[in-house]
Amino acid sequence: MASFATRENPAAPFEAARRRLWNIAYRMLGSAAEADDVVQETYLRWQKAGRSQITHPEAWLVRTCTRIAIDALRAAKRARTDYIGPWLPEPVASPEAGIELADTLSMAFLLMLERLSPAERAALLLRDVFDYDYPRIADILGRREPACRQLVARARKSARAEGQRFDADTDAGERLLGEFLLAIKTGELEPLEALLSRDAEIWADGGGKVLAAMNVVCGQNRVARFLAGLWRKNWVRGSIEQTKINGLPGLALIDGGHVYAVLSLSTDTDGQIARILVMRNPDKLTAYNAP
């Protein structure tokens, strides 16, 4: 039976679960805007539900939100096949709504999740990020426990195949960004190459809206040359400031007071830069240019 507090304020269970729902939806979709839509749709269904028959509101809300997110991700994956250039998750500047489990909010982690099917992604997040047991995961996904275990096992295997890339903690990340900026500003390749791993990559997401590399640039020397060219042709004209990208240190590229790109780094086991992610798509930078 619903509690007196729930009868008096039907939205109370939803508001109590809102942060958890957003955390799930954002990690599922890699888009803050799409996560907001999923959470809103969950609320609309909550309003229409026979709440007097719902004995565990949070369980109902998580199950509903996750299933909506799975459907939304399937549609998004179809749409992303026509995406122009590399697709990157939408970064959030100050993730108050995403503070929960912040170590799984990074751009590198979200990009790794793109390797997974929607069901694998949901199962891995529910088990390894949100620490739900398999009976609960089975209920959320509407599958048998053995099937959920298989989904998690496949997702973990696929994640391992992505390779070892790490997000530096705040202090180490800020030091690395400082070294990175100094190396770029020298205009020479050697200081840059010294910071990069041999198989370093740079991904740039312009979404067809602005100029950006259409393919991933790979290799220590090629990445260094690409970065040196960006500095000479574009970055030198504006300013570069340290910022937060999904709670971790990153760089904001600014021209005329407008953030036109943000950049995050991940490292290998030796602390060298393994991957550089550059977000240029203006549709995914609204959090950095909010009035």
UniProtKB/TrEMBL annotation:
<dbReference type="GO" id="GO:0006352">
    <property type="term" value="P:DNA-templated transcription initiation"/>
</dbReference>
<comment type="subunit">
    <text>Interacts transiently with the RNA polymerase catalytic core formed by RpoA, RpoB, RpoC and RpoZ (2 alpha, 1 beta, 1 beta' and 1 omega subunit) to form the RNA polymerase holoenzyme that can initiate transcription.</text>
</comment>
<dbReference type="GO" id="GO:0003677">
    <property type="term" value="F:DNA binding"/>
</dbReference>
<dbReference type="InterPro" id="IPR013324">
    <property type="entry name" value="RNA_pol_sigma_r3/r4-like"/>
</dbReference>
<feature type="domain" description="RNA polymerase sigma-70 region 2">
    <location>
        <begin position="14"/>
        <end position="78"/>
    </location>
</feature>
<dbReference type="InterPro" id="IPR014284">
    <property type="entry name" value="RNA_pol_sigma-70_dom"/>
</dbReference>
<dbReference type="InterPro" id="IPR052704">
    <property type="entry name" value="ECF_Sigma-70_Domain"/>
</dbReference>
<dbReference type="InterPro" id="IPR032710">
    <property type="entry name" value="NTF2-like_dom_sf"/>
</dbReference>
<dbReference type="Pfam" id="PF04542">
    <property type="entry name" value="Sigma70_r2"/>
</dbReference>
<dbReference type="InterPro" id="IPR013249">
    <property type="entry name" value="RNA_pol_sigma70_r4_t2"/>
</dbReference>
<dbReference type="GO" id="GO:0016987">
    <property type="term" value="F:sigma factor activity"/>
</dbReference>
<protein>
    <submittedName>
        <fullName>RNA polymerase sigma factor SigJ</fullName>
    </submittedName>
</protein>
<feature type="domain" description="RNA polymerase sigma factor 70 region 4 type 2">
    <location>
        <begin position="107"/>
        <end position="157"/>
    </location>
</feature>
<dbReference type="InterPro" id="IPR007627">
    <property type="entry name" value="RNA_pol_sigma70_r2"/>
</dbReference>
<dbReference type="InterPro" id="IPR013325">
    <property type="entry name" value="RNA_pol_sigma_r2"/>
</dbReference>
<dbReference type="InterPro" id="IPR036388">
    <property type="entry name" value="WH-like_DNA-bd_sf"/>
</dbReference>
<dbReference type="Pfam" id="PF08281">
    <property type="entry name" value="Sigma70_r4_2"/>
</dbReference>
